[in-house]
Amino acid sequence: MTVSTTTAGRHSASLDLGVIGNCSIAALIDRRAHIVWGCFPRFDRDPVFCSLIDNKADDGDALPEKGFFAIEMVGMTRCEQSYLDNTAILSSVLSDDSGNAIEILDFAPRFVRYERFFRPPQLVRRVRRISGRPRIRVIVKPCLGLGEEPDEMTRGSNHVRFVGADQTIRLTTDAPISYVIEGIPFAVDRPFSFFIGSDEALRAEIETTSREFLDKTTDYWRDWVRSLSIPFDWQREVIRAAITLKLCSFEESGAIVAALTTSIPEAPGTQRNWDYRFCWLRDAYFVVHALNRLGTTRTMEDYLGFITNIVDTFTESGAEHLPPLYPITRGGALDEFEAPNLSGYRGHQPVRFGNGAATQIQNDGYGAVVLAATHSFFDQRLIQPGKDSLFGQLERMGELAIAYFDKPDAGPWELREKEAVHSFSSVMCWAACDRLARIAGTLGRADRKEYWKGESKRLKGVISDHIWNEEKGHFVSTFGGTELDATLLLFAELGFVKPDDPRFIATVEAIGRDLTRGDLLLRYATQDDFGFMHTGFLICAFWYVDALHAIGRSDEAKELFGRILKRRNNFGLLSEDADLKTGELWGNFPQTYSMVGLINSAMRLSRNWEEAF
């Protein structure tokens, strides 16, 4: 997929962005090949490049004041961008109307070195002349702290150091360093490379290192893609989604973040601006399911390791309520605060860091953990399969599920001012008991199997009585309630009901009638703490596709899936939300949930390889 920008102007912020990374850091690149977002030395640290969330709606053609890395070709009128096939390496070809052209290759080094993964907190920008005598101007304006400019800038023969109170960033290059510092245009008469990241000296020749890193990173990604189990249909879409999911994984701990950004609003002017650079337990089941289908066992096992470490720590703590989200290293605070000196995405404040949802009670977490960890007991490919000791820890999750399945919580949509007994949370608690019975069976623990089967049956009876509304003729989102929400679409996938259960079919049809808006879905149609919904939540659209397929409306599901894919940006990526009328992307980006939804739906709907030819 090649995308083209035919104007030299327009710096207005948008989510038509490409992503690069190496499972340690990541960066977002706009349609002019400017780096507009990136945190060092890991996803959840302060953004060094923050212009994505520090701009105004009327900024027009003006360059941002700070928080970006631009390589601009003098006189550029066109920018064509594409990923190198089956990689996370982005190519941007800049050209003018006089026959001058350059290529910028952007990537984060990732490959095996000394029998371990080499993934430094570093980005590489490699520039080469394609034709004519092009000239470039390099402008590097990082921030250190939350939108703060560096305290000091020092230079060496081939590097510049941007010094702040808590971090120093180093740019190393074989381009003329004075031209770079002063923003003076110069000719691209040979390849130039730019390494930017942690304050470490590059201990080898710049051009040789740049070329070696590029070649090895290319080989790594293509080998990784070659190992994927992909569907026959929608191969390119699934490959790009899989690479993006991989880029959202923090390999050191195994965590996978919900998104790489903070405070991209779910809809303009709504105050729904949240920090998503953390790991949500709710996502665990869906992420592990997608990774399992793709055959990415290493990433899946790393993620399961993160989840089971949470179980260990929680059990040792003796706490009663499992936090719904965690920092990517499980340590540190998630206290939510605002950064008023950052103007926001298109001027939409507040810009928030941390996430107050970490202190909420969300009872679905017990089921999410058990469902994710269940893979450890059944997947024979894993190096560290589940054992009796892990089962004992998971039983603690099950007992808490029993205790809280019918208690009020903030629910799957993390309501900040309201609590209720949410149907999804209750069904997830049931799922914890159901899966523990299955695990006990595979471990030969007949007594525990019978216990958990009994509890599963009991919970199912109570829940069923409270979440079915006879007058409405469908399941409802809260005990004794009347309203719908999109999580009800998951009940068949979770095994709570069979897909041909008339109650489930009626619920899917009701959601199609009341929550769909064109090709998109609302999470719910009721007013919450911030008003009514103005955008469609993309994962809900994929859940609806899956539910249609499950109840036998497969042709309709495939047609809808094809239309939803058109909501992806020009790089094949999705954020959290989309405008109901225009389809414009909103919400944090790229959204892991959305990419997982794409993968799971494609896997379900595709012809198998034997059918295809």
Summarize the structure.
This protein has 613 residues and is an alpha+beta fold. It has 14 helices and 31 strands.
Explain the overall architecture.
There is one protein chain. With 613 residues, the chain is an alpha+beta fold. Helix content is 33%, strand content 20%. Strands 1-7-8-9-12-18-16-15-14 form a 9-stranded antiparallel sheet, covered by helices on one side. The mean pLDDT is 94.
Mean pLDDT value: 94
Unreliable parts = none
Strand content: 15-25%
Q: Which architecture name of the largest domain does CATH use? A: Alpha/alpha barrel
Please provide the count of β strands: 31
Helix share of residues?
A: 25-40%
Distance between the termini: 25 Å
Gyration radius, in Å: 25 Å
GO molecular function, one term: hydrolase activity, hydrolyzing O-glycosyl compounds
Domain GH15-like: 238-601
Organism: Bosea lathyri
Domain Trehalase-like N-terminal: 17-173
